[in-house]
Structures are given as structure tokens and as C-alpha cells.
Amino acid sequence: MRLDVDFVLYASIVIACLIPLYIYRKKVFSSVLKKNDISLFIRDIKKHMQVEHPKIKIDYAIIDKTKDENNIEVRQTIIVEDIVSQFFYYEYEKKTQSDIQREKHWQGYEERSISNDKYPNDWPIRKDFAWKRDNGSCNRCGTKIQLEDAITVFVKDIKDGGGYNFENIIILCSDCNKTINSQNPKNSISSLQLNEKLMIYVQG
Q1: Given this model, what pLDDT does residue 139 score?
Q2: How far apart are CA 163 and CA 110, in angstroms?
Q3: Which of 10, 66, 119, 165 has the highest local Cβ count within 10 Å?
């Protein structure tokens, strides 16, 4: 009987100690959770950009600028928006590309490379070679892309006299193609796939 009384007494003391902790748990743990959540988030988005878009150099000053924002989700969203905006406005100039090995040129290659409104009938081969030449990656951001998803643009537009030769062919991902051809930056930025990919990390 004495054991039961002692047990009840000790249990009551433990409960009494835990009640304030339970009541104020948000205040007690909020700063710790906030720090851990944002640090994991920052790690993940930096890794994503480094691995998926290695050619885009991001300035992460926005992380410090938003340090006083108490709402973690709001802060994460602001950071994502800033990174996507930097991706969109990252300076890029279309430049002449490398040719493929001359011995791989085929009969009729030169003649069909001349500027023409109609794509040459060997265009699928040209796209395939250009994609392989660039190791299956976007010329602007460096992301890896499948051949069927690769978009070709020209250093010098065909309408301006550019040809279908390999030196004039650039391989881009869909996001970078939207970026360099954008007529409405606000709409283009919101439609980038990068938005969706980075928002996955928000409150992930």
C-alpha cells in the first residue's frame, strides 16, 4: 500500500513538472525548430541548384535579409522567389558552339546547312549529334535533359541568315528556352518548372 502512495506522489510531481513544458512547448522549442527547419531547407535548395543548374551562379544574400521573418513558410517562399528570379535574369549570351568531328559529317551535310525556312530532312540527326556534343545538358544552366525534351535554338536565327550547321545549334532546357524568349517576365517566371521543384522544399 505504501508503494502505491509513493508511486502516486512521484507520478504527480513528474506530471506537475511536465504541464508547464507542455503549455509553453511552442515558445520553448520554436527557436530550435525554426533554426533546424530553415537550415535543412537552405541546404536542400543550395544542393538542388548546384546539382541541377551548375552554370547558374546564385547569390544567397536573401537568406540573411529574411532572417527576421518569423513565419518560416513565408521566409522560405521569399527565398525561393528570389532564386527563381535570379535564374530568370541570369545573364546569358548565345555564342557559336563547337562542331562535331569532321569525319562524322555525312554526304550533303554542307549543302543542307545553308539557311532555309524549311528544316533539312536530316534535322533529327543534327539535333541528336548536338545533344551528344553537349553531354545531354542545357547550354545555359547545365541541367541534364533527355533528347526528347531538349529544345534547339540558333546562335544566329535562320530568318537572319543563320544556318543549320552544328556551330549554330544550341541545346536548351524548357525553362531556359522560356527565359531567353520571354516577352512577359512576370508570367514567364511564374511558369518555370524550377518554381515547382523548389517549392517542394518549402515546409518539406
Answers
A1: 98
A2: 10
A3: 165
Q: Does the pLDDT at position 34 exceed 60? A: no
Domain ranges of the chain: 2-91+185-199, 102-172
pLDDT tens across 61-97, in order?
999 999 999 999 999 999 999 999 999 999 999 999 9
Evaluate whether 57 touches 90 at the Cβ level (below 8 Å). Answer: yes
User: What pLDDT was estimated at residue 203?
Assistant: 77
Distance (Å, whole) CA 57 – CA 54: 7
Q: How far apart are CA 139 and CA 34, in angstroms?
A: 38
Pick from 31, 28, 36, 85: nearest CA to 61: 85
Interatomic CA distance for residues 141 and 121, integer angstroms: 29
* CA angle at 157 for the pair 153 and 158, rounded to the nearest 5°: 105
**Which pLDDT value is given to residue 19?**
58
What pLDDT sits at residue 169?
Answer: 98
Which residues partner with 170 through β-bridges? 153
From the list 130, 131, 119, 138, the residue with the least C-alpha distance to 179 is 138
Q: Which long-range contacts (CB under 8 A, 24 or more apart) does 22-29 make?
A: none
In order, the DSSP letters of 92-160 are ------PPPPGGG--TTHHHHTS--SSPPTTHHHHHHHHHHHTTTB-TTT--B--GGG-EEEESS-GGG
Contact 94, 171 (CB under 8 A): no
